[in-house]
Amino acid sequence: MSAEYEGHDDRLNTLPKLLLSRQIRKERDRVAIREKDFGIWQSYTWEDYWTQVRLFALGLAVLGFKRGDALGVIGDNRPQLYWAEVAAMCLGGVPVPLYQDAIEKELQYIIEHSAVRFIVAEDQEQVDKMLALKDSVASIETIIYDDPKGMRHYDHTNIKAFVQVQEMGREFDKLHPGYVEQEIEKVRPDDIALIAYTSGTTGNPKGVVLTHSNLITNARALSAMEDHRPTDQVMAYLPMAWIGDGVLSIAMFLNTGFTVNCPEGPSTVMRDMREIGPTLLICPPRIWENILSSVQVKMDDAWWPLRKAYEYFMEVAVKCAKLESDKKSAPFRLKLLRALGRTLITSPLRDNLGLAEIRYAYTAGAAIGPEVFRFYRAIGVNLKQIYGLTETSAMCTYQPDDDVKLETVGKPCVGVEIRIGDHGEVLIKSPGVFRGYYKNPEATTGALKEGWLYTGDAGIIDKDGHLIIIDRAKDVSTMASGTIFAPQYIENKLKFSQYIKEAVTLGQGKDFVAAMINIDAETVGNWAERRSIGYTSYTDLSQKPEVYDLIHEEVKKVNLSLFQEEQLRGAQIKRFLILHKELDPDDAEITRTRKLRRGFIAQKYEKLINSLYSDQERVDVEAVITYEDGRTATIRANLAIRDLEIVKPEQAAVA
């Protein structure tokens, strides 16, 4: 399973060269990046972009930044933080993006492991985190901040303003003209361009070493298969530490030349997106689900004629979208109704969501619910599933416009080979596959063998050459009955519900499957308010009998779905409870990319798990929660445990 790729200009073989040669000399006056600040969009042309990067690189050189040095970057998506990353690359350095909501312990490990000397922090909050670490992390020399608010009375001996560093660069440039350009010429395709740390589901995060060649080849691969254009508009709102943002907002951005737009803040993304009208968008399933949930909540409260019109025309649109995916033609009457619905309902809705101009929309990181997927396809959003890992420089599969299949993650991008190894493990070979794990030869040897990356994911390739991801290979096991138990697969089905945010399923070696569930506080809260169900906190809401009834029905739907799959009928959920708190990265229960730390959860919630496999109907729990600033608190609750009937053939026939 592979595809071929024709290369581009071999001279443009590093990211700084792409910036210098492809963009600056050809497209000086076109907008490269925007940032919304105090309600106003600030635009920077490609000439501005180059000037900002160049001055900051010169300032870093004055501070002693050398080839091979690591530059930590932490904060929300800001042009200055992207300029800092590219500036480090221009000097032969290595940016190390950090999750902005990470706690000190997580940050300390990564900064020490990568020997970060210089850190660019967005604002006072991030500077405070770095100052708290400075005494214990010997490598930290200089902290550079972008937003000066609240920074006036700090000791600026080892703290510099971003603009101050650029001013130092401006003075250095007078005595060393052409310095940055000379340093760019020294950078080679196989030099390290980025160290992206994994989420660390089973231990400390691993530093994935990606070269300029890795990132450029991968960016070109997807753009070669899709019609990405310099005129495209892209939203940069996902964590900069996530490889998806690194590839989109730096590698693909420099290769294709589209415009990147940074929202004012995480809470304004949807509003800012409506103003920009992006043409290219990448979101994890949870965001697509959240957008749909907000639509559903609003429609539940809408004037009843509008609600009925929405329900009717959405049903028509979904039917047409399903026929299209099955490569069948819709009847004339259905096409006519869809055209009317497009005018009255779906086009205005798409515009309201900021998706009116979308040409390519991607979902990645986990499975997306069939209802969610069909909703976006029905309203005219070209939503497609892609697959990739940090170790593959992000995306390595895609779905062609004329071959979008709900249950798959698509076909390999150009230059990518995929095969299924022993025990169903997905193996990948491509120019985008990473060099290795930083300072971890043992892990590198385990992941890379004879040029193939052992992904750890279990999957199959269907008759049309599409890849289907089932679960993590190490998590796929059997129950006592011999039934296949794929926990992530079942958890994803549960999370397809708008009312369920997270789920942990149990069943390896057991007689039945049990589940621990996190409700979605916002969606369930709105549901409760519309029914005049009062509550005081997440814990209180989660344990309401009415909420248990709601989730009970959602789990029953999952069991019916599992019954439809012959190999998984024995993996239906028999007992569940709703957790008293949300699974939280600060409590080490999930990673920053919301992947479960199963081993830790099994230890922490051992009492709850044992109760699920007993005859108990309730269980007392006491838990310590950790806030982002390191403070802790203890919460206590008495959790209900619910039993479910397993779906039988006669019930399935009625359903």
> CA-to-CA gap between the ends?
39 Å
Spatial ordering of strands, largest sheet = 4-3-5-6-7
Instruction: Please name the CATH architecture of the largest domain.
Output: 3-Layer(aba) Sandwich
Q: Give me the number of helical elements.
A: 22
Q: Please tell me the total number of domains.
A: 3
Which range does the strand content fall in?
15-25%
Shape field: globular
For the largest beta-sheet, the strand count, sense and barrel status come to: 5 strands, parallel
Computed structural class: alpha/beta
Could you tell me the radius of gyration in angstroms? 25 Å
Question: Could you estimate the helical fraction of the residues in percent?
Answer: 25-40%
- What is the CATH class name of the largest domain? Alpha Beta
Q: What is the CATH H-level superfamily of the largest domain?
A: ANL, N-terminal domain
